[in-house]
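Example 3.2
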Amino acid sequence: MLLAGGEGQRLYPLTRRRAKPAVRFGGDYRMVDFTLSNSVNSGFRRIYVLTQFASSSLHRHLRRGWLPMLSDGLGEFIEVVPAQRMAGDRWYAGTADAIYQNLFILQDERPNLVLILSGDHAYKMDYQPMVRRHLDTGAALTIASLKLPRLECSPLGVLEIDAGHRVIGFEEKPPDPRPLPDDPHHSLVSMGVYVWSTDQLVKRVADDATRDTSHDFGKDIIPAMVEEGAAVYAYPFEQAPNGAPAYWRDIGTLDAYWQANMELVDVVPELNLYDQDWPIYSYRGPSPGARTVHGDLSSVTDSMMCSGCIVSGARIHRTIVSPDCYVHRGAQLDRCVIMDGADIGRDVRMRQAIVDEGVRIPDGFAVGLDRSQDEKRFIVTEGGVTVVPQGIIL
């Protein structure tokens, strides 16, 4: 069950018209593609996608790229489940409430285990070893965990474990994350990847529904289970399927989103999108290959160029240009994320910026060069990234 209904307030304005899992990432992909690809590549092909906020673009992407991929005849499916307001007049109050309001799915399917995933993280992970570990330990709940620098862990759930990886402490979004016992500079965090024994999942979310809580796994259910000594275990995520070191990014803020995209154009990216043994699937429209015009003037270095792009005498460095964009003569782009369908005019200068889908930047315009001017027109993040949203008239 993939939770894909998040509003993504910290990614606003990119989430003004679309759910967070539908936000473009890495040029050819949407965020949800990484979790779905991990599921399919791991052999899990019976998937319910729970949607809610501004979900039309997400539904369209799933319909085009994912629903035709699996075979009903072989018992495979991706089923999109919109919020149905089964509990009175409210939408999903939290992650646990999203499962509670869809317990009828578990009643129909009768699975022994449920894998619960988030649709807005970038990573490659084989879920099979985690499921085996869950069965071996007899856990009620197993949480995928990752060691991260302690100062980066406040927005996440932080775990404390014993020598057998049993969770003995859990705190959601702590202001001062607990360090590892043998490493004061790192903490152990939850990746938002859960394996549940179905009977325990049903019991916990049904009980939580009767209480005055935020109805969230990280805020309510997991801390309560740990406090009462329930069998909650951590599964350490240490290696990607291709043998590379574990890579996982919670792309929860505009700065984190921009940084994760920039990591993809490193000389040797930590997240390998070219690994055909563990491919990341997506919908790709019928666009021709990217091309350059006025080759004597064009320069593209350390960048990603997607299908349908035309670069006409522009200079592009450490930039991701998504499908069907046009970058006109004389434009200079440095460390930018350009989403699909954007049109970058002649002699535009742009640095450390995010340009939303379909935005047209007029000739001679500058973005990211003068913060005081940018703040009058756009959103500028704490880290100095300028975001040009849809619908703005320049």
